Amino acid sequence: MSALLESLLGERAAPAALAGVREAAIAALRERGLPGPRDEAWKYTSLRALEQRRYADGDCGARMRAIDVGFLPGPSAARLVFVNGIHREDLSEVGAVTGLDIERLGERPDELAAILRSAPPVDAFGELNAALALDGVRVRVAAGARIQAPVQIVHVGTPADGDVAWSLRVQVELGDGAQLRLIEHHVGSAPNANLGSIVAAYRLGARARLDLIQLQDGAEGAGLFRRSDAVLGSDAIFDLHTVEVGAQLARHDLVVALEGRGARLRSRGVFALRGRQHADTRLAVTHAARDTACDIAWRGVADQRSRGVFHGAITVAAGADGADAQLSNKNLLLSAQAEIDTQPVLEIHADEVKAAHGATVGQLDERALFYLRSRGLPLDLARRMLVAAFCGAVLDDLEPALRARVDALLAARLPQAEATP
Amino acid sequence: MATQTQTEIEIERAREPNGNATVEAALNRRYEAGFVTDIESESLPPGLDEGVVRAISARKNEPEWMTEWRLAAFRHWLTMTPPHWAKLEIEPIDFQAISYFSQPKNRPKSLDEVDPKLLETYDKLGVPLHERARLAGVAVDAVFDSVSVGTTFRKELAAAGVIFCSISEAVREHPELVRKYLGSVVPTGDNYFAALNSAVFSDGSFVFVPKGVRCPMELSTYFRINARDTGQFERTLLIAEEGASVSYLEGCTAPMRDENQLHAAVVELVALDDATIKYSTVQNWYPGDENGVGGIYNFVTKRGDCRGARSKISWTQVETGSAITWKYPSCVLRGDESVGEFNSVALTHHRQQADTGTKMIHIGRNTKSKIVSKGISAGRGQNTYRGLVKVEKGADGARNHTQCDSLLIGKKCGAHTFPYIEVKNPGAIVEHEATTSKISEDQLFYCRSRGIGEEDAVSMIVDGFCKQVFKELPMEFAVEAKKLLEVSLEGAVG
């Protein structure tokens, strides 16, 4: 048992309602232990750096501090702010919107326990989350309701008295024909070495549509382990944009089950890393019903000493005829110390299927660079422009205000001035 | 002696159309003549311990260092556990139930005892009659062809300076070469099955092409002495020195009747500066019956080391047989500007499973690799491409292109793609693309509308699908491979 687990699973205060589910999760986690390098799913992401760390309870005084982060622009139907995994009333704004029901799970331990029980964890970090989650949010959209303004969930990481480990749950349920735009924004108020864990579940009823924008700009130095689990009913549409630029060590398991006939996933994603950042995105899409479709395009940039890992698996179950699956993953490797590991996977068990995937790793096109420089642009600017265009190619349909914000985020991460060759 | 053999072959060839009796007579005569060692007496009882390893080594009159090498591998093997990461369903193998130096037990006494279905297959493949007997494992060691042909060509090869012999012979006669290269590409402890092979390998081929020599002919296991009984644990070592080039063909081009047994071979290729090695395999071991009973477990470690600058290693494989195929012919691109290629067609029908692909490890500068993999799944077959393209830090200008396509025939089969791409050099360009689809209705309809039967149409489309790989095969192998696919796909449609 690593020191890490010992410190995480020590005595912690929790509501009585959570006791049973916590104990089960702790027992399961002790039994399983944290994944090591021989676990296929953790082949490229080592937890060694974490192993000797010790973490205090969530929050730990952060509640008392002033938080200064820039929230996303534009109106929103609701904004829920969690600081180090604990809800902050003073920063949140929840108005009354017809058809939209938002519940804070920290206030409803029974509900939280029920949610934890309803989806038993499948891996160590799921168990860790179940063992530690104290707060969270449930967003429900009534059948047929179309919520115009987006709902924002903001996760703020902030330094506390010591390094803290926090966990929370997000549960999003869309009734039949419901529509919602949801923005999940991870942001850090200052560098910290906290360990965050979020397990989010998205349930889309028949013909429901969820536009989800995940903007991960977590605090420098932080560890962030996320699992996003989506289940789609028939003809449901899940439109997903994911941007990963923050945190020191980020792992994101994105699991989508196309369970209803005609369900569709569209996923666009970018990661841009620098310094010693490590981001591991593990996307798994299952076509479980007929005529389901997925269209996935991800781009990655690794600079300096960073490491970007992308795993994109598409499974077509037996009987899921008419499935149409496309995945593309293109990566730019900008430094001799950086690394990209990509693994597009197809598992096909039906024959009336169109499935294709592609992956590339390369560098900026010399000719394009030359063209820009011949037009008088300095090398540095030319490089930045090309990298920005490379990332931007999959973000074209973000709404302009958000796009501008994402562009600024990416620009801050993209290559800085480098010696002219 | 060589001339005599030559004449005898001619006589036998002339007699061929006369049927089984003639062949058997010829074979029996050869047997009496003492060309073949009495097999029965060579068998060891099932089980594996140091005694067995020593016995194998002693039986082959190996020098002390070779015995020690085997024992070291065996001791390492004891500490290992069977890998389980492949996407395969394998009944646990009882390694103590295998005889490590044996011949198949109840061998049929004549062609009349051979499964008629099997003979039918041979017929369709157009395998010559005497080869049919040999391939069906009739209880004569039908190496007559190989012995004579082997000796004939050996002179020619020797004149060119090429050494081509069994590995046991090489251990005795060219110990300096074997010691230098054996295990240098696939170390004894490389993986579970390679360790096992290192401990108990029975025989295999040894090829050495000296500096500047272009091997005057294509080498093949067909021409090899005792090819028939190198069986379960083959070990092949192929070395091409500076500027040398060689093309090697391996495998059984017609079904080999066998029980559900383990075949764990190791193939090592070494290419020095400017050397070229082309290694082609047509694998058609017994795949088991429609219900997945029997068949070979084909767990093979194949690796080529492009040790020298501008060296090139190219693997071409057509895998249609075996109940389970589990192998990844790989290239370690160590030399600057070295080139690795992998061309593969893997077909699984009935309940066959294949987890195959390649590894391209780019270490040297400006190294290039190309991967073309075509998987065909029919019946309840499961076909997996698994490949690794790794670009190490120093591999400036490395370039890889991978294309893997899967074709599905039937509702219950599966096609899977697991590529691993690991890049540590910003000067590298790595591209991977894969598609999976079934045979296009349009293409089928077009063929049918031209009066082509459904099975023939499927066969044509499959052939077109595989063309890219077949064109890499030597001519006669390509023809055979095409036929093999047709036969293997029978009953897959309709």
Automatic annotation (TrEMBL), chain A:
<dbReference type="Pfam" id="PF01458">
    <property type="entry name" value="SUFBD_core"/>
</dbReference>
<dbReference type="InterPro" id="IPR055346">
    <property type="entry name" value="Fe-S_cluster_assembly_SufBD"/>
</dbReference>
<protein>
    <submittedName>
        <fullName>Fe-S cluster assembly protein SufD</fullName>
    </submittedName>
</protein>
<feature type="domain" description="SUF system FeS cluster assembly SufBD core">
    <location>
        <begin position="164"/>
        <end position="390"/>
    </location>
</feature>
<dbReference type="GO" id="GO:0016226">
    <property type="term" value="P:iron-sulfur cluster assembly"/>
</dbReference>
<dbReference type="InterPro" id="IPR037284">
    <property type="entry name" value="SUF_FeS_clus_asmbl_SufBD_sf"/>
</dbReference>
<dbReference type="InterPro" id="IPR011542">
    <property type="entry name" value="SUF_FeS_clus_asmbl_SufD"/>
</dbReference>
<dbReference type="InterPro" id="IPR000825">
    <property type="entry name" value="SUF_FeS_clus_asmbl_SufBD_core"/>
</dbReference>
Automatic annotation (TrEMBL), chain B:
<comment type="similarity">
    <text>Belongs to the iron-sulfur cluster assembly SufBD family.</text>
</comment>
<dbReference type="InterPro" id="IPR000825">
    <property type="entry name" value="SUF_FeS_clus_asmbl_SufBD_core"/>
</dbReference>
<dbReference type="Pfam" id="PF19295">
    <property type="entry name" value="SufBD_N"/>
</dbReference>
<dbReference type="GO" id="GO:0016226">
    <property type="term" value="P:iron-sulfur cluster assembly"/>
</dbReference>
<protein>
    <submittedName>
        <fullName>Fe-S cluster assembly protein SufB</fullName>
    </submittedName>
</protein>
<dbReference type="InterPro" id="IPR055346">
    <property type="entry name" value="Fe-S_cluster_assembly_SufBD"/>
</dbReference>
<dbReference type="InterPro" id="IPR037284">
    <property type="entry name" value="SUF_FeS_clus_asmbl_SufBD_sf"/>
</dbReference>
<dbReference type="Pfam" id="PF01458">
    <property type="entry name" value="SUFBD_core"/>
</dbReference>
<dbReference type="InterPro" id="IPR010231">
    <property type="entry name" value="SUF_FeS_clus_asmbl_SufB"/>
</dbReference>
<dbReference type="InterPro" id="IPR045595">
    <property type="entry name" value="SufBD_N"/>
</dbReference>
<feature type="domain" description="SUF system FeS cluster assembly SufBD N-terminal">
    <location>
        <begin position="155"/>
        <end position="215"/>
    </location>
</feature>
<feature type="domain" description="SUF system FeS cluster assembly SufBD core">
    <location>
        <begin position="223"/>
        <end position="465"/>
    </location>
</feature>
